Amino acid sequence: MSTSQRAGGEPTPGTGRFISGVVEGFYGRPWTMEQRTELFQREQKWGLNTYLYAPKDDYKHRMYWRDLYSPEEAEHLIALISAAKQHKVEFIYAISPGLDITFSNPREVAALKKKLDQVKEFGCRSFSLLFDDIEPEMCPADKEAFSSFAHAQVSVTNQVYQHLGEPQTFLFCPTDYCAAFCTPNVLQSSYLLTVGENLLPGIDILWTGPKVVSHEISIQSIEEVSSVLRRAPVIWDNIHANDYDPQRIFLGPYKHRPTELIPKLRGVLTNPNCEFYPNFVAIHTLATWCKASPTGGSRDVEMAAEEETDPCYSPQKALTLALSDWLQELTSTDQPGGSRRPARLKKECCEEEPMQTEVSGSPYVPGPGENPLYTAEPLTLDDLKLLSDLFYLPYEYGSIARNMLEELNWLRNHRQAAGAPTDQAEEWRSKARHFDNRCEDVVQMFNRLSNAPNRSILYDLYNYICDIKSGVGLARAYVKTLGGHGQPSALVMSDDPEPWGFRGGLSGEFQRMLPGHGNRDLFKDPPMTQVYSIRSYCNKDKTEVQKISEVMLRGGKEQTPLVMQPPLISDGLSSGQIPPSSECAFVLEDELGVCGYALALTDTKAAAAKIQRDVNEPLLKDFPSLVLVQVLPRVTDPAPAKRMVGQLLSSISSSGSRGAFCELRRSDRRMLDFYSRFHSFKHVQMDGLPQDVVVMATSL
After folding, report:
1. In sequence order, what DSSP letters do the residues of 191-243 get, joined into one string?
2. Where would I find the GH84 domain in this sequence (predicted)?
3. Which of 232, 485, 658, 687 is most deeply buried (CB count within 10 A of its CB)?
4. Distance between CA atoms of 619 and 699, rounded to whole angstroms?
5. Pick the CATH number of 381-508 from 1.10.357.10, 1.20.58.240, 2.40.40.10, 1.20.1250.20
6. Is the dihedral of CA 576, 577, 580, 581 positive or negative?
7. CA–CA distance, 64 with 83 (Å, rounded to integer)
8. Residue ranges per domain, the chain?
9. DSSP secondary structure string for all residues of 624-693
10. pLDDT in tens, 527-537
């Protein structure tokens, strides 16, 4: 295998215009052709320039990527590409062959080229190869042809790029597309280093940030990944994506990305909600962010006070601007989806008189004592601000939603004061009235939104606003019960409530039983506490250590048998073949029993000789001791494990050792992450190390 060209050089921002726009890359029902055309109109109006076609459930994009498009499908794509050009939007066709491609098979590469040649005939000039969300393992044939998964991907990507004539825009999505996936970290990731070194310089690379859904993207993190990739990345931003949770939708502004990032990036593409119409806010605020000027230009003093970290862009102002524009669409009958009165049929077009749909005579007027006619109130900007606050962003609520949670928590914690004749009782009743008014605001927002003329937007939102209205209703009834207003609510207090009185179904039941459930909740109830104890290892713990080792090695599923994996000295320690050194072994216990261990050999060389294992002499010169740490997944708090390791290292140091190292398999991402966060351990480069093994060490 040979590489066509090496990128080389220092990282530089991409040439050409800043890529900005939308990626349709979620899992779920793809958008319709009409919706995509409407998207192009919005992008042109708001100053965005790119659309990346990558719907995961388009089966010829991903699962059946080899299949050519039928004439009917081709007609649709040609029309879509033409519509994008008409609105000055760059259409990027993405294909995702990573599920089953054999990289070393020339016929597979030819099939990929043929598929993209077909799309090129449709008028498309920009392309993307995606290798995201696939298993990072090569088939036996590829293992013989390529030294790593990264080399295989880069080889095929470079070939396709050159075959297509080196398009001006060509995007590559790596398998390790965020920092959380990099082993042991971004700067030391062999995968990213290979991609950065060997991928042709005209190919841009997609990146989601620190995580798949990144709360924040910092300048430092982008500079770090740019240095490894040797180019500025294009951000594939999942901050508004909701395909992982059918109970949430995100209507907050583009946020927590400083505008100082703009000159350090090649572009930003938002991968928004699955529902098309509610993405108005996500795309509108991204467009506002992209137009911000981090260098030069006037700076808004008021904005600077409001947004201390970014004087050039205010998420709140951008949100208000987006919601104001969205209100016009929601209340307009001229927009797609708006209700229209059907046109009267011309008599000459039909043999029969058309059905009479208009009411004849005077409108109905209620008489004395009768119910007044229901009149729908018009939707307001305050309604949309409330809606956005209730469905804000993945890691935070809007201010009103947060205040409602804080008020309910206070009312619940001080419920004993509700009926007492004291000043505190009046404070309680005052807060209860305020909370009730907030709940009423949600109900009225629901009513007005339900009667908005643009029904297409409503239908995308309806399940979500129904759910929040119901949840607020339960909380409202509970507070009234605490205040002594009427009988306890059947919805809140009953042992056998209606199904709308409890949430989550089977998925919710599973989640509530897991240790991490509620970690992101504003208030944790009951308190999520767990008691752990650390004690010295004894002979009776040998069986438990072996069980934990076997469980963690297999990861709960069928994997490569131990005999086929690279042998480690630490395997002898965990299996009991080698006993740990005296006073250098500890176990971690919780209420269920032993849940972790930390073992050490102060003299690794002597212990390795007993089991006839080779050792690296230069390594042992500075780090003569070996440590082995493992904890079960039910230990969700890293603090107890860190304390246990601290005690172990102290004991090793007391024995006179200069340093300690650990052996890790790359598949054990949990412990790799643990040691990486344990700042004293550093990655050690060694010759002759098996590809699947990582060594980290610390001086004592």
Report:
1. HHHHHHHHS-TT-EEEE-BSSSS-S---HHHHHHHHHHHTSPPEEEE-TT--T
2. 18-294
3. 232
4. 12
5. 1.20.58.240
6. positive
7. 26
8. 19-292, 381-508, 533-556+564-699
9. -EEEEEEE-TT---HHHHHHHHHHHHHHHHHTT-SEEEEEEETT-HHHHHHHHHSTT-EE---TT--TTE
10. 455 789 999 99
pLDDT in tens, 223-235: 999 999 999 999 9
Residue 436 predicted with pLDDT over 60:
yes
Helix (H) or strand (E) holding 597: strand 593-601
Q: pLDDT of 75-133, one tens digit each?
A: 999 999 999 999 999 999 999 999 999 999 999 999 999 999 999 999 999 999 999 98
Structure tokens at 58: 């388009």
Number of residues assigned to the chain: 700
Tell me how far the alpha carbon of residue 632 is from its chain's centroid: 25
- Write the pLDDT tens digit of every residue in 188-213: 999 999 999 999 999 999 999 999 99
Q: In whole angstroms, what is the distance from residue 471 CA to residue 636 CA?
A: 29
Amino acid at 494: S
Query: Of these residues, 57, 133, 243, 673, which one is catalytic?
Result: 133
Which are the contacts of 245, defined by CB distance < 8 A and separation ≥ 6?
Answer: none
* Reported confidence tier of residue 261, pLDDT bands at 50, 70, 90: very high
Asked if 687 is an active-site residue, the reply is: no
